[in-house]
Structures are given as C-alpha cells and as structure tokens.
Design goal:
Blueprint: H1 3-10, H2 17-23, E1 35-38, H3 48-63, E2 67-70, H4 84-94, H5 117-129, E3 133-136, H6 140-152, H7 171-179, E4 185-188, E5 197-202, E6 206-211, E7 218-220, H8 228-238, E8 243-247, H9 254-264, E9 270-274, E10 277-281, E11 284-287, H10 298-304, H11 308-319, H12 323-329, E12 350-351, H13 354-366, H14 370-384, H15 386-391, H16 395-402, H17 421-425, H18 430-435, H19 448-462, H20 469-482, H21 489-494, H22 503-515, H23 523-530, H24 532-538
Parallel strand pairs: 1-2, 8-9, 10-12
Antiparallel strand pairs: 3-4, 4-7, 5-6, 10-11
Helix pairs in contact: 1-5, 1-7, 8-9, 11-13, 14-16, 19-20
Length: 539
C-alpha cells in the first residue's frame, strides 16, 4: 500500500484540486490592482481594530481599482457567538466599509469557511498523496507526555522532528489503525529546518529574518474541519488575494504560512502587518483591551453617537499621520480620495486616544449641514435618547438651532457626539432653560446691580429684533460706552484704568443672562431664533 491508498481511505469521494483551480480562475484585473481581504472570526463583538483593518483593506483595494472582500473564518465553531456573522457584516455596512464580495455576493465563494470543507479536503488529500501530510493518532495524554519530556530535556516544546511520534509511521500501519476506528487528525509533514532562516519583506515592517518552521502543525482537526492556518492559505490562493493586511501579532506565523504556500505549490501574497492599537496608561502604553476598554467595541461609538465619518477619519489619522494635513487642505473631499500609503504606517504601537478622536469628530460634524446634523442626531435619538427626540420633533425650529454658525468659513465646533447634543442645545428650549439648576458665572462683571442695569438698559433702549448683525453689535458697543466700558477691546488694553471693562464683558453678561452659558455659538443668531417675547422673559 502507498500514500495514495491512504489518501483515498481518508478522503474517498472528494474532487481533485484541478476542479477547484478551474472553478476559481485568476482574477482579470489591471496591473497593480490589489485584492485585499478582511477575514474575521465570529467569536465575539466587532473590535475597533477589526474596523481599522477593514478600512485599510478597502482603501487599498479602492485606490488600486482592486477588490476588497470579506471571508468569515468560522472553523472554530465552539467559540462562535450567536449572530456573530451578521454582526460583523452589519458593522462594516454601518461604517461604510462594505466589501465588494462577501456572503451573498461574489464569484469566489462560499465566503464562509465552514461551507468550504470539500475544498480543504481536496488539498489535504493532495498533500497526503504526495507524502507531505500524515494522520496523527496522538491522544491528549501522549501529547502531554511529549511536552513534559521536552521540558525535562530543556528542548523546544511542540510536535516536530524526533518528537513527532507518528510522523514516520508505516502507511500500512496507519491504514490499519484508521480501519480499526482509531481517532486521528492530519498533520503537515514540515520540510523546515529551524537552523535556516527565511528572508521576508513585510510591506510595513520591511525586511524580517526568521527561523524556518519545523512544527508538524495540524491541518485537519478531528471534527473534519481545517485549522485556520491551513484554510486561510487555500482560500487566499483560490480567491486571488494579493495583499494580506493583519495585526502584527501574526508576524510569528509568517514562516509557517509561507511554508504552507510553498508546500501547496501556491504563490504567496504580500503581507502587511499593522501595529496594534495602544492606549496610554500610568505613563506607559498597553494594547486596547476587549475586557477593560469600552471603546474597543465598535458598538460603543454608535451608542455614544459618534458619527461613522468621525470614527473612520480618526482611524485614517492613525494609519497615515499625513492624513490630518491633507484633510485641512481638502475639507470637502471623500476620505477615499486621500492617497493612502502603507509604507507610511508606523511599525510600533499606534496610540488610540479618545480625546483626539472627539476633536476629529468636532471637525467632522462642523462640516455637516444643519440637515445632516438633524437627520443623524434624530436617527440616533430614536434609539438612545427619548428626551432629545422630543426636543427635535419640531424640525423647523431644530434646523434653525442646529444651523447656528454652520456653513461659515469658521463653523462652530462644539458638537463631538450626539449624546452631548441635548445639553449643548438645551438653553434654546424654554422648558429646559427654566428647569436648569446649573450655576452660571458672569465672569468679570459679577456685581448683581451692575448686571441688572446692563440687561435692563439694553432691552429698554438698544434692542431691536429687526437689526442686522452689524447694527446689533454697534448697539452693544453704544451700550458699553454709555455705561463706562470701552467700545473696543484694544482701547481697554491700551488704557485699562480709564474703563470699567470692555464691550466683550458686556456681551458676556447678555450671553449668560439669556443662555446661562459663558460659551455659546454666535449670540446674534441665538437671539434671532429665540425672538423678542422669549428673550424678554429671560431678561
């Protein structure tokens, strides 16, 4: 009996690899087009690092007129969570990172690994026939003993070389054990020599030298499903992947993965290992944690009401530091117009900073029209904030409120997320204004009689709801001058002993009296929207 008899015994009814090579022909793309994939496992919530990886993958594919596809790696079915697959695809849709191909669309599927079992069996059979793989009958107890013996001898742990108990078992003995019903898995017969090194050029990290792999890894598990290592190599080959972007925790697997491509006779794609997203803590940095950090979950941003554009812009900011300058120079362009360069990605941990993200978000929201702000905030409030939803029910009034200082050369930048919006605009709603127990500070002018005098004189003598902005402000200057304050800030600074203060101090009194805030967008626009009757009640 020979290796073909063994292969036929284990896989009696599988199609030959030629069938799949013909079924999945090389993609007909222009030169330089990249086929990039995001290949998550449905074993938990969608991590912000996953969105980061998929955004980079889509950006590269789009930039090169290539293909971005999503393949779900669900061969570890014991760890799979309910609705895990749907959650992944929905998160990508929610953040405008939808793939060109995935479950339900594309000619290189199935895009679920659990539905590709026959493909993996075909290639496993080929390796068995060629003597490049073998059945291993090791029990858990036998593996434990091998490890203990290795530790005792102070040798590397693993299943390799002389420690690979069933590596050189005669084929007829292996066939007999299989016919007897002995449980087994299938292992790669590694051709590697750890005394030799592979030379690999990573797209991001540059040249890497690492020892060859000599571990006889499992390629088909006892349940008949492939391991991740085996499956992804076959899939990347048949799906025409040209570039694999993944986290740098996978760097150590490069020798094994390149060896699998070599053993199977495939051309390997290029690898680009991205630095992990890090968080500052206690003067040092650590990886963003699924357990410790709520911001690690993509769902967190939706719950907080941080727009998808803000999240994507911040992630691109992390990926290429020159994005921030490009955005300032191109405020109206799509993120996908940015000339992304993988070689400009950092090789060490990328700092993930929520304060910076919220600053980016303020800039993003500042570019939205009042209609866009209203629609996004209203949609968020329907799911997360009934009180805000009630405030936004009067669409015409809400659009006026949200339109203050919007569309200007220097638009307002006070909104970072929809969960802050209720407080930010609450003073524009009389019931919220009256109910507010907030302490407010008039700043420089804090004498109650002086404050009352300023407000009373303004509304009795100077206020006219029909004034344009220039007239309105000139009247506040007149008010300031009448009460002994400088008309201009520079006049006060030039001769502070001559004045009680300046026009800005007068404006602050009016602002705080009418809004209970010392910081607001344009006071003229606020007063126009509130109107005379409501202003007089507040005064």
């Amino acid at each position: 009996m020979d290796s073909k008899d063994l292969a036929n015994l284990i896989f009696p009814n599988v199609k030959g690899v030629e069938y799949y090579e013909n079924k999945y022909p090389q993609r007909n793309l222009k030169e330089g087009a990249q086929v990039v994939r995001y290949a998550p496992s449905p074993t938990g919530f969608v991590h912000i690092g996953g969105l980061y990886q998929s955004l980079i993958a889509k950006k590269i594919a789009k930039q090169t007129d290539g293909v971005f596809f999503v393949r779900i790696e669900d061969t570890d079915q014991k760890r799979e969570v309910e609705n895990g697959v749907e959650g992944i695809l929905k998160a990508l849709d929610d953040y405008d990172v939808s793939p060109d191909e995935t479950i339900g669309k594309g000619e290189y599927g199935p895009y679920l690994q659990s539905e590709r079992k026959d493909i993996y069996e075909s290639y496993a059979k080929k390796l068995l026939e060629e003597g490049k793989a073998y059945p291993c009958f090791c029990s858990t107890e036998e593996l434990d003993k091998i490890r203990a013996d290795q530790e005792s001898a102070k040798e590397r742990t693993g299943y390799y070389g002389k420690w690979a108990k069933y590596r050189n078992m005669p084929i007829d003995m292996a066939i007999e054990k299989i016919k007897n019903g002995d449980p087994y898995i299938i292992r790669l017969k590694s051709p590697g020599n750890p005394d030799k090194k592979i030379k690999h050029k990573d797209v991001i990290k540059g040249n890497i030298d690492m020892p060859e792999n000599d571990q006889d890894i499992v390629i088909i598990k006892s349940d008949g499903l492939p391991t991740y290592h085996f499956a992804h190599v076959i899939d990347d080959h048949l799906m025409g992947t040209t570039l694999v972007t993944r986290g740098d925790e996978w760097v150590a697997s490069v020798p094994l993965h390149l060896q699998l491509f070599y053993v199977l006779g495939f051309k390997a794609p290029k690898y680009a290992h991205t630095a992990a997203l890090m968080k500052q803590e206690d003067g040092g940095k650590r990886k963003l944690s699924k357990r410790k950090d709520p911001e690690a979950a993509v769902s967190y941003y939706k719950e907080e009401g941080i727009p998808k554009d803000s999240v994507n812009e911040y992630l691109m900011n992390i990926a290429n530091s020159n994005f921030e300058i490009w955005r300032k120079q191109n405020p109206d362009k799509s993120l996908y117009d940015f000339p992304f360069d993988m070689k400009k990605m950092g090789v060490s941990g990328a700092l993930f900073d929520m304060v910076k993200m919220l600053d980016v978000s303020k800039n993003v929201i500042s570019r939205y029209s009042a209609d866009e702000v209203y629609n996004l905030a209203y949609s968020w409030a329907k799911e997360y904030d009934k009180e805000l939803l009630e405030m936004l029910e009067d669409k015409e009034y809400s659009l006026k409120v949200l339109g203050i200082e919007r569309g200007n050369q220097k638009p307002r930048k006070d909104i970072a997320k929809w969960s802050d919006l209720k407080y930010i605009i609450s003073y524009m709603y009389d019931d919220k204004f009256e109910a507010s127990s907030e302490e407010y500070d008039y700043q420089k002018i804090n004498d109650k009689e002086e404050i009352e005098k300023i407000v009373k004189l303004y509304f009795e003598k100077y206020y006219d709801e029909n004034d344009d902005k220039e007239t309105w402000f000139n009247k506040i200057k007149d008010l300031a001058e009448e009460l002994g304050y400088a008309r201009e800030v520079k006049e006060y600074k030039a001769n502070p002993d001559k004045y009680k203060g300046h026009v800005g101090d007068i404006s602050t009194v009016l602002r705080v009296k009418l809004t209970r805030r010392s910081q607001t967008p344009d006071l003229f626009e606020i007063m126009k929207i509130i109107g005379k009757e409501r202003l007089l009640k507040r005064a």
